Amino acid sequence: MDALATPTNSHLRQPDWYRSATRWTQLTLAEDDPVKYDPDQWIDIFKRTQSNATCLSAGGYVAYYPSKVPYHYVSKFIGDSDPFGALVEGARSLNMHVMARVDPHAIHQDAADAHPEWIAVDRDGNKRRHWAFPDVWVTCAYGDYNQKFMPQVIREIVENYDIDAVFANRWQGHGVCYCDSCTTRFKTATGLDLPRTSSLDDPAWMGWTAWRRQVLTQLVVDWDDLVKSIRPNASFIPNMGGVSLIEFDLGLIEKHCPFLVVDDQGRRGTESIWMAGRNGKRMRATFRERPAILITSIGPEEEHRWKDSVTTGPEIQSWITNGATHGMLPWFTKFNGVVPDQRWIQPVADSFGLHARLEPVLANLTPTAQIALLDPATTLRHHGQDTRRAAEADDLGFYQALVEAKLPFELVSDQAMTPAMLDKFKVIILANAVCLSDAQCAMLADYVALGGSLVAANETATRNADNEPRNALGLGDVLGANRLSAMRGPVRNTYVSFAGDHPINAGFDGAERIIGGTHLMAVEPISGATAPVLYVPDFPDLPMEEVYPRQEPQGAAMVVREHDSGGRTVFIPWNIGAIFHDVQALDHSRMMTNAVRWALGDRPEVELSGASVLDVAIRDNADERAVLLFNLTNPMMMKGPIREFYPVGEQTVSIAIPTGRQLASAHLLVRGTTAAATVSQGRVTITVPDIDLLEVVHVVWA
């Protein structure tokens, strides 16, 4: 379909080989695949999907080649064959890049008998049988298994096969391990016993998260050094979840990981499709220039784990394409080489084909926006998997509100922000950045002093980077608010009331008050700040005869301030984002987006209108701008799988023309047509007749 469908030989085995690895097929073999699957079918799938790179099962839990490493279990079905080697040769014959997959999270009985120290131990002192297959054992990720045994496996693979990288799955461990090695090493490093809880108030838990981060980061470094000692242009690439960057030392990851792979294979429970694209923004929030890849499963990603199944084609296409809308390179994974249900092949081929069509234009453009949502890595790194999603509920709520308002935005990680990075944006949103260091607070204060605007909410900056409480708001002077008392809650049946006709209060005609939060902080404006929204003092929710307010509205439920620099600040001292994420009340969405629009001040550079729910992304360079319009309008938007696409009708896109430039051309890239465009008052207005799943408005400036 285009010249980039497969890399030329000149791209292979070079230091920057990964830059032409833009569409990935992952084949994760089952143990009996060597006698059941059809390798030629997979070569055909490589071709149909225009994949230019592949990740293939090599070893770890099961070896798919004749390994000679002691206790490295070899599939009993390979006989005298070499399935991994055959697939590598087939992919290389198509000029594809090749990555070898290893999975070190479990071992068989013979290895467990010979090396019981390789087995993870639970908090009760029991060696951990595998939760899904009790015949085998879960490994300790922090000791000799990963530090001594797996390097032998990696060395054998890299020395004997023509590969570009080694990719590890489930290499990070499964919670706290209480084996003798972890107990001793943790005690030596921290002076503490291993934690028994995941409470942020437990020093042992805080010590564990830091110690684990150090151990795993060093593992990435050691494995990458090993790979490069054999093949200098190759790398070790760790599999990462959407928040994994908060778990590692960023400087070392930047040095050793030339690209990032995010293992967020699909949505589960009640999630929007935009979660796919959020991964792209999150990776870019930390490493703006580094390629990032999103793994997509062809099956549903629910907790019930139907891993050898197929979901609907529109769901597959939506996840892949929304990720690509926000810069994620597509990668699909198939578990089990046998293909009893082929309904996934054409949807993957269509999504990959669309990516190939758009790649020549979009690859030359950089994601941009006027608004950024702060990714609170300093806060989230203290949380375990059981509390992390609740800790980022405010961020998810603001994210949904911005999408509904058709406001393009990026993410910025607080652990990677610099004055230069902040300066790229006019508004920074801190939905609930609880833990911020003094240096981070100072950087944000300087940003406002130079004309930037902040919208902050909930418990932002109430604790320092080590999760220690502050006596006052870390950004109080900037936000114009003085804290009177700590956050209280959960409370029920709370309301906030409008005070005056501030622009943030627009659009609530007929309402004197709206739903409040469940966690509330008492604050007062300081000189130069005002409170356009007030708390309604608590009153009972039962008996029903008692459900009435006893007092007039009082106490600031929002503090706003206009600064001499031209910047504006908004502080909402309650959990508006989390409540919107949970309840989806339109009033909260309107209040948040009104606050962002007021903080922005000027008319947005890109405005959209039309009946639709669109996830909008902007990319540009000095001479071009692309506005990507991903259609979320679907009855299954918040709960999959999507059954079919629901096209939206006419949409209007208004784009500010850069100073000193004029419109040269406008196209709709997915339709493949010239766009209907008019120019007036320094803006170009483009009509998009309809959108199926994605449209890209591409303008070129003269």
Report on this structure.
The protein has 702 residues and is an alpha/beta fold. The protein folds into three domains: 9-103 and 144-173 and 210-364, TIM Barrel (Alpha-Beta Barrel); 371-600, Class I glutamine amidotransferase (GATase) domain (Rossmann fold, 3-Layer(aba) Sandwich); 606-701, Golgi alpha-mannosidase II (Immunoglobulin-like). The chain is built from 18 helices and 31 strands. A hairpin with a 3-residue loop joins strand 24 and strand 25. The longest helix has 28 residues, at 203-230. 49% of the residues are buried. Residues 1-8 have low confidence and may be disordered.
Q: What is the rounded distance between the termini?
A: 29 Å
Total individual domains = 3
Biggest pleated-sheet summary: 9 strands, mixed
Number of helices: 18
Report mean pLDDT, rounded to a whole number: 94
How much of the polypeptide forms β-strand, as a percent range? 15-25%
CATH architecture of the largest domain: Alpha-Beta Barrel
Helix/strand/pairing class, anyone? alpha/beta
CATH superfamily of the largest domain: Glycosidases
Q: Which strand order spans the largest sheet, edge to edge or round the barrel? A: 13-12-14-15-22-21-20-17-18
Uncertain segments of ≥5 residues (pLDDT<50)? 1-8
What key attributes describe this structure?
702 residues; alpha/beta; TIM Barrel; Rossmann fold; Immunoglobulin-like; nine-stranded mixed sheet; eight-stranded parallel β-barrel
